[in-house]
Specification:
Elements: H1 13-36, H2 38-56, H3 61-80, H4 90-100, H5 106-112, H6 118-131, H7 135-156, H8 161-169, H9 172-178, H10 182-195, H11 200-211, H12 235-260, H13 263-274, H14 281-305, H15 311-333, H16 338-361, H17 366-390, H18 393-396, H19 400-405, H20 408-414
Helix pairs in contact: 1-2, 2-3, 2-8, 3-7, 3-8, 6-7, 7-10, 8-16, 10-11, 12-15, 14-15, 14-16, 14-17, 15-16, 16-17
């Protein structure tokens, strides 16, 4: 019986020429796409890799590395090419910090930034020293943070690493906030690494690093005290806990702010109440409850569908679920002051996506696996559009039109790689 798959050299001249022309055309289309629309082209390539990994259900180091490199470039571009604006842009504050303290020696700098968010400020200093004050430093900071995030995801799920990372990069939460709120993005990367650990000592190390990257992560230190059996806590006790956190926070949070607050917190509270930030806490509560519903529905589905799940799945997926539930509890406890609660709503999406992909990926039927993943992901896309479409937040945190329309030469100019100042 002849092998239907023949090598290229064994093909007739006409077929070989036809195949060569096809590859040349594909190469020309790829080069043209990267030149005129690099962001969209790389997103499409990453999506194809993610879809293949979801169907294949086997880890592949080469494809995982390729997806990571593509997504690294994709995710660095929105931050590094974003022009500085004097209003409502955290990147401005980081840039001014780099300028103001660029002449400090390391010891003088350590004396200035030895307190809260020390790790983030240290990384700002180092990247500005190595790459200069500008977009190069921002890109380097982000690449370090994003690499830590990718490492944590890879340790949790080697098989679906590319899928999780791709879905997260598609979220507005990622492009608009993770690539702009650098200190909190770095803290989130450390939190994902903490969840991937089995040893509590190393978990403590990562949470401490997160706490010194952004002050909000200090509230994750009690997570270390939760016993392992709580990973399988039921849905009803979880909902009761959320209700208690919400009611307790509504009573205690204003009193706590009155005791430890300052003029900055007072002004921020007034801005949120007046709607100057384009935020609506009711919408975020609704979306959080939607996420809780998705995660808990998948949890119940996994309990009854996977009668004998692998120990690796139980350990990793249920640890991710517990971190998500803990994050939600802190969110509800602080919701009466949205300046604080926003820090925890920021963290939720990555844990939802990891748990969702890990559960869906354990389905044996390929069609069900893909359809359920697409359904859950569509809910995520719809929810974030719902949150951000109404407010002005999306315009503060990134030029989305330039992100889609910039050509490769334009991006190189903005990155200072073509000799043109930004």
């Amino acid at each position: 019986m002849q092998n239907p798959v023949r090598p290229l050299a064994a093909l007739p001249d006409s077929e070989q020429a036809h195949s060569s022309v096809q590859w040349l055309l594909l190469g020309a289309v790829a080069i043209t796409g990267v030149w005129f629309a690099p962001y969209l082209s790389l997103v499409i390539c990453s999506g194809l890799i993610a879809a293949f990994m979801l169907l294949r259900q086997q880890p592949d180091r080469v494809l995982n590395l390729t997806a990571f490199l593509l997504l690294t470039v994709i995710s660095a571009v929105p931050l590094a090419t974003k022009n500085l604006e004097p209003v409502m842009n955290d990147k401005v504050n980081y840039y001014l910090e780099m300028q103001q303290y660029s002449g400090y020696s390391l010891m003088d700098w350590l004396a200035q930034f030895s307190g809260t968010d020390f790790v983030s400020h240290l990384l700002f200093k180092l990247t500005a020293t190595w790459f200069g004050v500008g977009n190069g430093a921002f890109a380097a900071f982000f690449l370090i943070s994003f690499s830590l995030l990718a490492l944590g995801i890879y340790r949790l799920s080697r098989t679906y690493f590319a899928v999780i990372l791709f879905l997260f990069c598609c979220q507005y939460n990622f492009q608009g906030l993770y690539g702009n709120l650098l200190r909190q993005g770095l803290a989130l990367s450390f939190l994902v690494l903490a969840v991937s650990e089995q040893h509590r000592g190393r978990m403590l190390l990562w949470i401490v690093m997160a706490s010194f990257s952004h002050f909000s992560a200090f509230l994750f230190l009690p997570y270390l005290l939760l016993p392992a059996r709580w990973r399988t806590v039921g849905t009803l006790p979880v909902l009761a806990l959320f209700a208690a956190c919400y009611l307790g926070g509504a009573v205690l949070m204003p009193k706590l702010i009155a005791v430890v607050g300052n003029d900055f917190l007072a002004s921020r509270a007034e801005a949120y109440v007046s709607g100057d930030f384009g935020n609506n806490p009711v919408r975020k509560i609704q979306i959080t409850l939607l996420y809780v519903g998705v995660v808990e529905a998948l949890y119940q589905f996994a309990r009854y569908k996977f009668r004998t799940p692998s120990p690796q799945f139980v350990q990793a997926a249920y640890a991710v679920r517990l971190m998500f539930l803990y994050n939600c509890a802190v969110f509800f406890a602080t919701i009466s002051f949205e300046e604080v609660a926003n820090r925890y709503s920021f963290n939720m999406m990555i844990f939802v996506l990891i748990f969702m992909v890990m559960v869906c990926g354990n389905l044996k039927d390929a069609v069900s696996r893909v359809l359920l993943t697409l359904l859950c992901f569509s809910l995520g896309i719809a929810s974030y559009l719902y949150i951000n479409q109404v407010g002005v937040q999306q315009f503060w945190y990134g030029d989305l039109q330039a992100l889609v329309t910039d050509s490769l030469p334009t991006i190189l100019n903005k990155l200072n790689l073509a000799g043109t100042p930004w």
